[in-house]
Write a structure and sequence with these properties.
Blueprint (H helix, E strand, L loop, with lengths): L1 H17 L1 H13 L4 H13 L2 E5 L6 H11 L4 E5 L6 H5 E6 L4 E6 L6 E5 L6 H13 L1 E4 L2 E4 L5 E6 L12 H4 L2 E6 L5 H12 L12 H13 L4 H15 L13 E3 L3 H17 L7 H12 L4 E2 L1 H5 L4 H11 L4
Parallel strand pairs: 1-8, 1-9, 2-5, 5-8
Antiparallel strand pairs: 3-4, 6-7, 10-11
Helix pairs in contact: 1-9, 2-3, 2-4, 3-4, 3-11, 10-11, 11-12, 12-14
């Protein structure tokens, strides 16, 4: 027991030293993006936990600015890809081109070969393009001309979609939405924040973002985050939450039985544990507490629960289901 305590103390010290990078990233984002604290925090957590993010919100809410600022803080290669109905997979991943001078085919790599990808309005492109991005997100590689090409590390896809305008869109299949670690709902700024936005945009000098971290520091932080202690009681808590989305009647949630079409996949359990560890890292702790798990549940689960027509008729959404599950499952 004493050795265990020493290990936790050593881990706490290591985390306290390394976790300063999150403060540097948050200060850098605060410098250019006013408000939107939840969005900025989730971008940092996804970066630390090595996961992709689906951003849903109205236009003009600083989604692109936040993503671009994050790339600048890391001195990372940034690509913004506007998804349109006429986009082809080759426009995304690249293609083989013939060189007349050398009389051979060469690979022309596409914009997906970057560290941070902003897939703008991802649901406006057809299935072939989405499947090409799916391979990049999951395998961290793309296939061009029969050969596989590794993507750079770190590699982060941040996709946006408009929740209102659905005409001419291609809904993302469940297999692709499941690849996103978070689905973050981006809200309107507060009144005081919007005043600050007005002042910033009318200022003579626009804030500039300078790099504060290297890629190696992010990779080292990811390795340390995986070492953060996750007690078996917390593991049971995570699996209970996920299983309640699949078998609600076993958790005294019988009224959800006819309303949930399918529950969260095992990726939900993996992402809940990883992101909870990242939350602990941000809070300078070498161990996970239940509140770390609860804080990320909605963002991890809201896009992984399928609802029946009956649920839609009752105007029930996944937010309500996740909230009630958290209220029902006993906290360790």
């Amino acid at each position: 027991m004493a050795d265990y305590q020493i290990n936790i103390e050593e881990l706490n010290e290591k985390v306290a030293q390394k976790s300063r990078i999150t403060e540097m990233l948050m200060r850098g984002l605060d410098h250019t993006v006013i408000g939107q604290h939840h969005l900025k925090e989730r971008l940092i957590l996804a970066l630390l936990a090595d996961g992709h993010v689906l951003l849903e919100g109205m236009p003009g809410l600083a989604k692109t600015l936040a993503v671009k600022s994050l790339a600048q803080l890391l001195d990372a290669r940034f690509s913004r890809i506007q998804f349109t109905p006429d986009l082809l997979p080759a426009d995304l991943i690249g293609t083989m081109i013939y060189s007349q001078r050398d009389e051979e085919f060469r690979v022309k790599m596409g914009p997906v070969f970057a560290n941070i990808i902003l897939a703008d309005e991802i649901n406006r492109s057809p299935a072939k393009v989405q499947s090409a991005l799916l391979e990049a997100m999951q395998e961290r590689q793309v296939t061009i001309g029969g050969n596989g090409y590794r993507l750079p590390d770190p590699f982060l896809v941040l996709a946006t979609q408009n929740p209102i305008e659905q005409e001419g869109t291609y809904p993302l299949p469940e297999a692709q939405t499941d690849r996103f670690m978070f689905k973050v709902i981006v809200e309107y700024p507060e009144k005081e924040e919007e005043k600050l936005i007005l002042r910033q945009q009318s200022s003579v000098t626009i804030p500039e973002t300078t790099p504060v971290l290297s890629h190696q520091e992010i990779i080292a932080a990811r390795k340390l985050i995986r070492e953060i202690y996750l007690d078996e009681k917390i593991e049971n808590y995570i699996t209970d939450i996920v299983f309640a989305t699949r078998h609600p009647s076993k958790y005294k949630l019988d009224h959800f039985s006819g309303l949930i079409q399918y529950g969260a996949s095992p990726r939900a359990s993996i992402y809940l544990s990883l992101t909870a560890k990242a939350v602990a890292f941000m809070n300078q702790r070498g161990f996970v507490i239940p509140e770390d798990v609860r804080s990320v549940c909605h963002d991890v689960l809201r896009h992984r629960i399928g609802l029946t027509y009956e649920a839609q008729a009752e105007d029930l959404d996944t937010e309500d289901i996740v909230t009630e599950i958290l209220n029902q499952i006993e906290v360790p």
